[in-house]
């Protein structure tokens, strides 16, 4: 089949985690290579591709709503198509497959998380035949890395090192929609990283649902610390990684925060709960004491490392005492950022059949108390930056005020500073500049170029 999307405009709408964000860069890269032109809005787009998330119910509902509105949205006046092409991929595509077309017949293509590469031919077949195309695979034969990408930020790259997950936390749907964990060969990771360095990329984020278990399925069992060392060796300026499961965080990786200057002093270490009873029911395979011990070791290695975490409030059977264990753990750690989620029941996971009788208002009350603590902590954590000079990787003009530039500190804090006279935010994009911090808020730092 010959494929061309010349003359067609494309909008990719992405929900969920970095995995989907990275996939969306590959969808854009692949379809642009076949002639499609990216646009920002649904209105301008002849083709819309949704990369979906089903980790919580809210994301699920939003997708169905957005796809429904496509039915009545007119095409741009000079579109060569008679009808907008709509494709749904990502985790809901994987989970629901043909059911999506049955529920929403105006959907043209459904693809899963293991067959991104099939999207162009599915779109072409939908164009040629006018009938819906569904292809969802159970697992991928190999690590899908051969697709071109169009990066959102040319100076920062996401580099997947594993896909899938073997952990089966009892609340989580990810292992069912992303499949078993598969590691990418170390040589491939290194050659991709070298390519980025040659292109002038400043920051690489190594991605996986649990990067710490990298390599267990590969010949010779390379470890995650080997990936860190090899990527650091390429000379890349900044390295980050996500996500890191506490049960598999090794002493060697912790030590690298002290010894690898390019490894940024920030770590996302999801705790989920501070109650040992709930952690057990979640199948997390660590307890609060072990988590706090990791925090102690991390701070011994890198005094002012910025820690962030994920917490689920209202897991089935959570009591006030369980919640207070979580609250006290958060107080004890002092996080820079905490992503708080209300438990959302996912059909097919073990937690979905656990008795769950805590009233909604009680859970919401706990959630609000936690959010209040988290905001207070984030504000306090940022105060230590006042008066310091921090190297900031400039992302561009601030979205709220174009006279300010916006970028990231080593600890991944958002930093704003006035664009210096005689220069534009665009000139500084992708550069690392020193900023003297004179004000620190809950969610950003403010300063001026040093
Ligand atoms: N692999 C990553 C997280 C993937 S999902 C890790 O293990 O850390 C991102 C976050 O969503 C999780 O850390 C968890 O806090 C939250 N989450 C996952 N399933 C959820 C559910 N059913 N209800 C509420 N939050 C959930
Ligand atoms: Fe989900 Fe747990 Fe895997 Fe993270 S480690 S993706 S929370 S099952
Ligand atoms: Fe969502 Fe799928 Fe990521 S369910 S969190 S997009 S792996």
User: Which consecutive residue ranges, at least 5 long each, have pLDDT under 50?
Assistant: none
β-strand percent reads 15-25%
Q: How many strands?
A: 19
Name of the level-1 CATH class of the largest domain: Alpha Beta
Q: What is the 3D shape?
A: globular
Number of individual domains: 3
Q: What percentage of residues falls in helices of 4 or more residues?
A: 25-40%
Q: Give me the oligomer status.
A: single chain
Q: Name the CATH homologous superfamily of the largest domain.
A: tm_1862 like domain
Q: What's the pLDDT, averaged over the residues?
A: 95
Subcellular location: Cytoplasm
Protein name: tRNA-2-methylthio-N(6)-dimethylallyladenosine synthase
Domain Radical SAM core: 151-380
GO molecular function: 4 iron, 4 sulfur cluster binding; metal ion binding; tRNA-2-methylthio-N(6)-dimethylallyladenosine(37) synthase activity
Question: Secondary-structure blueprint of this entry?
Answer:
Elements: E1 9-14, H1 18-33, E2 37-38, E3 47-52, H2 57-69, E4 85-89, H3 90-96, H4 98-103, E5 109-111, H5 119-129, E6 133-135, E7 156-160, E8 162-163, H6 174-178, E9 182-183, H7 186-199, E10 203-207, H8 224-233, E11 238-242, H9 251-259, E12 266-268, H10 276-281, H11 288-301, E13 306-313, H12 320-333, E14 337-342, H13 360-383, E15 389-397, E16 404-408, E17 414-418, H14 425-428, E18 432-440, E19 445-449
Parallel strand pairs: 1-2, 1-3, 3-4, 4-5, 5-6, 7-10, 10-11, 12-13, 13-14, 17-19
Antiparallel strand pairs: 8-9, 15-16, 15-18, 16-17, 18-19
Helix pairs in contact: 7-8, 12-13
The site of S-adenosyl-L-homocysteine has 17 residues, from strand 13.
Function: Catalyzes the methylthiolation of N6-(dimethylallyl)adenosine (i(6)A), leading to the formation of 2-methylthio-N6-(dimethylallyl)adenosine (ms(2)i(6)A) at position 37 in tRNAs that read codons beginning with uridine.
Protein name: tRNA-2-methylthio-N(6)-dimethylallyladenosine synthase
Domain Radical SAM core: 151-380
